[in-house]
Amino acid sequence: MSEPITVRRKRLLYRSRYRGCLESDLLFGGFADHYLMSLDARQLDRYEALLDESDQDLLAWVFGRSPAPPRHDHDVLDLLRGFQCARR
């Protein structure tokens, strides 16, 4: 039985807000507040895969300190990069 999309979005919102690192909590929590309801199921898959990575790696990819691996270099990461630039 698959998880209803509303439950999935709530779970991802929680995971975005409570990463364990304040900088990550603010970035991913804000991103989730702004974009999560508009992401389709495939984008939610990609976002969830990003959240499975370490905060250090994610922040390095988002802030351009290191290149993202090809499996994570996609539209959702681009949205995150654009979101963090707009917040500066």
Identify the CATH class: Mainly Alpha
The helix/strand order is HHHHH
The name of the CATH superfamily reads: Flavinator of succinate dehydrogenase
**Main sheet characteristics:** none
Helix/sheet category = mainly alpha
Helix proportion of residues, in percent? 55-70%
Task: Write the CATH fold name.
Answer: DNA polymerase, domain 1
Q: Helical region count?
A: 5
Distance between the termini: 42 Å
Overall mean confidence score, pLDDT: 94
- Which consecutive residue ranges, at least 5 long each, have pLDDT under 50? none
What's the shape?
globular
Radius of gyration: 12 Å
Whole-number tally of structural domains: 1
Q: Bin the strand percentage.
A: under 5%
